[in-house]
Predict the structure.
Amino acid sequence: MILLLQNSKPNHIHTDQSDIWLNTVSFENENILISAPSGTGKTSIFNILYLNDNQFEGSYLINGTTSNELDDTAISNLRTNGISAIFQDLKLFEELSLLDNILLKNQLTEHYSKDQIDQLIDQLGLKEQTHQSVKTLSHGQRQRVCFIRALCQPFDYIIMDEPFSHLDTANIKVMTEILKEELEYRNANMILLSLEQDYGLAFHKTYHL
Amino acid sequence: MANIQKILWSDKHKRYNNIALLFLIIGLSISFLSLQLSDYSNVIFDQKANADFILVGKKTSFLSSLNGSRNNISKEEIEALNQIECVEEAIGFNSNQFEIKANTEGQFRLSLDIFFESIPDHLLDHVPAAFKWQESQKFIPILVSKEILNIWNFGFSQSQGLPQLDVATVTSIPFKVTIGKDSYESRIVGITNRYPTVLVPHNFLSYANQKYASGRNVMNRAVIKTANSTDPTLQVFIKEHQLDFNQDQILKDKINSALSIMLRIFSGIGMGFLVLSMCILLLQLMLNIEQSKNNIQMLNTIGYSKLVISKSYMKRIYKMMAISVISTLAIGISISYFAIQILQQYLIEIEQILYIKNILVIIAIPAILVLIISRKIKTSLNNF
């Protein structure tokens, strides 16, 4: 999958010293780290790359197709087959339990079996909370739920916006190990949006916003 | 898809859904029963055959009985009848102005003085293929009314020691008709339920009156084709011109009109419930979508297309519509069956309990509602 940003910049960002904004940047089967301090537009680049935001300067092309040309169905297809995401605000449904939040995605893609999901929940130390409402979970636990949900689909790129921000070292290690295995198994790549850290993950390129 | 239903519908909206469903079932049931009862009333009042035709003749007075004078309907009166708004057509019967004798040969011999009347074919309820006559044709086809056949079977034949006749037998007996010195072959070719008389082709009677009565023709009575025999203008005319008519027909029409008005009101109430149900359903649906806006946007973000979300909403609507149709048919069929049982106690036979067209209407109404709701949901989701 090729993601190409051409002279892109969100309307509200004012900068002339960025590796990405107002430059031509191509992500092609590479692991990318986008590093930036708070307030420099990490979530903005996330929204552009994940097709959440269509109101920006320049253009964004996915496999040669401009983002403006994609309709709702095409975007949904990309979000279930091509690009997965871990959101900074997590986007979990508080009405549902931990398991139901994961199943909600998996029933759309039918990517994992129930046993595989149970195994991931167990690996990430959430077995006891499986049937608890996500309302009762800590932010760190929620981040892990969001991680499992992001894996419940085929993808070429997984875009992660501060996915480890509320996790302890042990949980980060488990999550990054699973991530490495999944990327290798799927022959996929990641784009990590982070303050400064690389969390021990290997990247082909690093960009600064 | 249970999870997505939990996200899209709140318990509060489920309650409103149930109210809308109840109103939908009530509305559909009332509409279905109105249609069913309307069809039953058509059968009971035999509307297709007789409702629009009334027979009128001049009243016979004591004086006319004494002096033997005849009260005939004039051409001017027929023209005046045709001017009345509710009258589709009024036309006088031709009647024979000469003597006619009929006699049979074979197993039972019979000789009778008979009469003929005629009206144009388009006013007949039933025109058999053999009911045709051409000049020089020596066969006269005849239509008789069921009443005349009944008079024969239950009156005349008993007193004369003659056999009773069914329709098949009576239409197979040939007989001879003698007018003046001329003799014609004849046979009853069919039965009319509309006119209590003996009918021959209109062109034959015109020809015969010309030939045997020097063209003399008087109209003893007329048939009025009208959509509303209870129309006040028509009633005033009938009274002013001292016309005699079948009161039963008018009474039947009055009852039918009253029943028809009641069924329309009943049907209107049904429509009211349907509209109310539709309003509740749409309002709470729009409110639900508005209140679930964040969830819908999140679903869209994790990969649920608006089409899939719309289908999830429609899944519940389809379920509601299926429940409403099944419940309506169950209620409607039970009440229809019960109504028929009651009618049978009054010796009114309704052969067809259910009418396919009514069932189709009951399926079509929810189908239309589904289309409207589906469009509304898509529009609302596209606004996000």
